[in-house]
Amino acid sequence: MQNLKLFRRVLVPGAILAMVAGNALAANPITMDSVYLSYSKTRLAAQDPAFTPALNKLLQDANVLITKPSEAVTLKKIVPPSGDKHDYMSLAPYWWPDPSKSNGLPYIQRDGQFNPSAKNGDTDSVRMQYMCLGIQNLSLAYYFTGDVKYAQKAGEAIRTWFLNTATRMNPNLKYGQAIMGRIEGRGIGLIDTRNLWMVADAVPLIEPSGVLTAAEVTALKKWFTDFSNWMLTNQLGKDEAAATNNHGTYYDMQIAAYSLFTGNTAKAKSTVQSALTKRIQTQIAKDGKQPQELSRTTPFHYSAFNLDAMTNLARYGEQVGVVVWTVNPTTNGLRHGIDYILPFAVKPSSWPYAELDRAETEMMLPVLLRAERAYKSGAYATAVSTMPVTQFNTQEVIGMASALGTQKPTTLNYVDRLIWPVKP
Which label site among 30, 110, 135, 174 has the fewest CB atoms less than 10 Å from its CB? Predict the structure, then answer.
């Protein structure tokens, strides 16, 4: 990863606002909602002060991204056991060298405590998130402004990571979240690819620009098909599918998203149908709690993290005729799980569980925004409006700002603010 200089300040000039107003780009993403994106575009055209700070931040980061080299798995310093740098590799974040051993091997676990060596450019974990978030940022920048330079950079980033022979990632995760001295790769590593949906959603957003050819889109869908097949047939993928916590939820979320992207609607539907009972109604107890996530050293983070995947599954259910949002709303259903954690997101000091550091209430922002969209109760929008703005900085968003050298966001996780606006 690059050490990037500070990109100090970008305001939205009148010319760009004019492009926002006149740009009628069509988009039909899978995870995001085109109706809500269009609403944000309308409010930006009206120079709504509730929206323009988020666009300012989006473009600030996008203008840095277009000046930087695109990420590739072949840039890592550690060579995977296969000897092929095209194979993705990451290290388990909560495993550390054993101080009682001269060589530190085998590693030992410290749940909830990140080992810095797992979060640098030596492997691909941070690089993967940087790539996904960057492509999402650039595709949204193009959608909201119509400026083709953002689409061009997004297309370049997609080619570099997925398509170009010299730099593409092999469609497998054989060496995900390895534990030094113990195991070369684990099924649990599939949590690293949870944000690949951002790449799939970027394709329809930048499609009007023509920066990706039809052959390239076909090749990208072939990559996702191959990766899905690996997840479904390889033992590591099967291990992750068997997980009974957020890992299992994110596994199903990924399979559903990739199936929709590649046109396998039947697989997407069966996955969401299964997840309704296997993930949501099993993992959310009758009191709305998530016992598997509450047992962690950062229980608020993981409770919200799991709900994030569940709400995406509910979104996919909308597209394949599987109702998820309203099933068991007062017992072990999705809404009950959201409603259990809602008051603690508003008042973190009331959270009754011990945290390693603090309750990461910002993790609930996309969940609450999606809940307001689904239920239109007003309660979730009210909760968002009362939560501390300056705390809406997830690890990924902070990591992106740090990598870009830009100022940390201060506008409600600015991308979520634009993707899931609160509509009157």
Answer: 110
CATH of the domain at 31: 1.50.10.100
Among residues 219, 68, 213, 55, the alpha carbon closest in space to that of 147 is found at 55
Residue 408: the pLDDT is 61
24 domain residue, yes or no: yes
Query: Mean pLDDT for each consecutive 10-residue tract of the chain (424 residues)?
Result: 30 44 62 97 94 90 94 92 95 90 91 81 90 96 98 98 98 94 95 97 97 98 98 98 98 98 98 98 97 95 96 98 96 97 93 87 90 96 80 63 67 80 90
Q: Which two tokens stand for residue 366?
A: 């996309």
- Give me the number of domains the chain comprises: 1
**DSSP-assigned letters across all residues of 266-323:** HHHHHHHHHHIIIIIHHHS-TTS--HHHHTSSSHHHHHHHHHHHHHHHHHHHHHHT--
Q: How many CB atoms lie within 10 A of CB 233?
A: 9
Query: What confidence score (pLDDT) does residue 390 get?
Result: 54
What is the reported pLDDT for 6? 23
What SS3 state is found at 91? strand
Query: Is 180 in contact with 227 (CB distance < 8 Å)?
Result: no
At 194 the three-state DSSP class reads: helix
| Residue 375, both tokens | 């239920």
Determine how many CB atoms are found less than 10 A away from the CB of residue 2: 12
Contact 333, 327 (CB under 8 A): yes
The token pair at 74 is: 């072949």
Q: What is the pLDDT of residue 398?
A: 67
For residue 220, the enclosing domain spans 14-70+137-143+155-163+191-419
Distance CA 313, CA 280 (A): 10
Write out the DSSP string of 389-422: GGG---HHHHHHHHHHTBPPP-SSSHHHHHHS--
Rounded Cα distance, 286 and 290, in Å: 9
Structural domain includes residue 85:
no
Give the model's pLDDT for residue 120: 81
Residues 119, 4: Cα–Cα separation, whole Å: 17
Find out whether 405 and 64 touch, Cβ atoms under 8 Å: yes
The answer to the question of residue 168 being in a domain is: no
Q: Is the pTM of this model over 0.85?
A: yes
Can you tell me which residue has the tokens 């740098």? 85
Task: Tell me whether residue 92 is in a domain.
Answer: no
User: What integer pLDDT is reported at residue 414 of this predicted model?
Assistant: 79
Exposed, middle or buried: residue 3 (CB in 10 Å: 0-12, 13-18, 19+)? Answer: exposed
- How many Å separate Cα 268 from the centre of its chain? 19
Specify the pLDDT at position 17.
46
